[in-house]
Design goal:
By secondary structure, the protein is mainly β. The chain is built from one helix and five strands. It starts with 11 loop residues before the first strand and ends with a helix.
């Protein structure tokens, strides 16, 4: 399972729905109601507002050893 420190802006990730996304922003304990870390991701092939905010444990990091994901993101 990945921790918040494993993720960087522009990393390729796979969301729980199976969609490929690119990290846009990392929020560390950003909510006033809880202390959960969150990561804002933009879906590949989606528009500028096609975003999702998820907790790190919900994402699968693809950059490490997954050149296909990196190639897909570079087309964006």
């Amino acid at each position: 399972m990945c921790e918040l420190d494993d993720f960087k802006v522009d990393d390729a990730v796979l969301t729980p729905s199976g969609r490929l996304a690119k990290i846009k922003k990392i929020l560390s304990g950003a909510s006033k109601k809880d202390a959960f870390d969150r990561i804002v991701c933009q879906y590949v092939g989606g528009g500028a507002k096609d975003l999702v905010t998820l907790q790190p444990h919900q994402l699968q990091l693809l950059n490490q050893g997954h050149s296909t994901a990196t190639n897909v993101l570079s087309l964006r």
